[in-house]
Amino acid sequence: MSLPELREADAPPAVTAIYDALRAASGVPQVNLIWRHAAALPGVLEWVWAQARPALDSGAVAGARDRIAAQVALPMLPPAAAPDGVAALVETYNRGNLTNLAVLTAIRLRAAGVAPGPGGAPAPTGPALQAPPPLPRLDALPPALAAAARSLAARHGLSDPAVMPSLYLHLAHWPPLLEALPAILVPLFDDGALLRARDAAIAAAEAEAPGLIAALGPAPPAPPALPSFLGTLGAFTREVIPGMVPVGLALRRAIAP
Fold first, then answer.
1. Rounded to whole angstroms, how far apart are CA atoms 24 and 29?
2. pLDDT per residue as tens digits for the range 76-91
3. DSSP string covering the chain, please?
4. What is the number of helices (H) and of strands (E) in the chain?
5. Distance CA 146, CA 190 (A)
6. Which one of 20, 32, 107, 201 is most buried, by most CB atoms within 10 A?
7. pTM across the whole model
């Protein structure tokens, strides 16, 4: 079963206000799945956001985001033609995934008892990115495109095979590219390159965590659903998000003009 989530179009006013603030603080024009899942659990989105906002506003997360990206070694992909809108979408996911990996790893490790430490240099968040087209729903895709997205997700070896990385769904707006993506990503999927790059992203995020913990806001009282969410957060910060970081960074390089 897929994760429960509260999509932006379906969010009530209180959740919409947090989504708007998250987009403004990160410069990412969409709300990624782990945040939408937190919003579906009473009190959890508020618990996460109260901690994340000060670290985002201070530039601490942006600095960590850039240092994490620099630690991820990538194989060269064959050059790929990118239809209009694809490069902007990839940048949206790159910033979103790196931002979320940095700040959510810090929140997860703080909840596990990791102490704050000295932080790295902050950085500008960067200008707000272009809003992407609406995120398709997997069950609404034509069968061939749904199968292509599922096949790509399966290459990540996730512990919950029902989790669908949103980038693959979003690329269904460009069917020829989605169908060509397995061939484009062969150097990343072969010989363990994706797992090595994923593990490098995890290690870099965990090294940044103590400094980011020092920049987090106070944690509100734990909501009842928090233990379940922390289990999901562990999977997202150790599997789903860091596994998509190398995909997005490698695609950026492959579609560069």
1. 8
2. 898 888 899 999 999 9
3. -PPP---GGG--HHHHHHHHHHHHHH--SS--HHHHHHHTSTTHHHHHHHHHHHHHHTTHHHHHHHHHHHT---PPPPP----TTHHHHHHHHHHHHHHHHHHHHHHHHHHTTPPP----------SPPPPPPPPPPGGGS-HHHHHHHHHHHHTT--SSTT---HHHHHGGGSHHHHHHHHHHTHHHHGGGHHHHHHHHHHHHHHHHHHHHHHHSPPPPPPPTTHHHHHHHHHHIIIIIHHHHHHHHHHHHHHT--
4. 12, 0
5. 23
6. 201
7. 0.95
**Is residue 215 classed as helix, strand or coil in its secondary structure?**
helix
Residue numbers of the chain with a pLDDT score lower than 70: 1, 257
**What sign does the CA torsion over 209, 214, 217, 219 have?**
positive
Backbone angles phi, psi at 134, to 5 degrees: -55, 145
Residue 86 near residue 198, CB atoms below 8 Å: no
DSSP letter for 9, please: G
Model confidence over 130-168: pLDDT tens digits? 999 999 999 999 999 999 999 999 999 999 888 899 999
Nearest residue to 158 via CA among 195, 106, 129? 195
Q: What share of the chain is helix, strand, coil (3-state, %, to 5)?
A: 65, 0, 35
Which pLDDT value is given to residue 146? 96
Q: Are 120 and 210 in contact (CB under 8 A)?
A: no
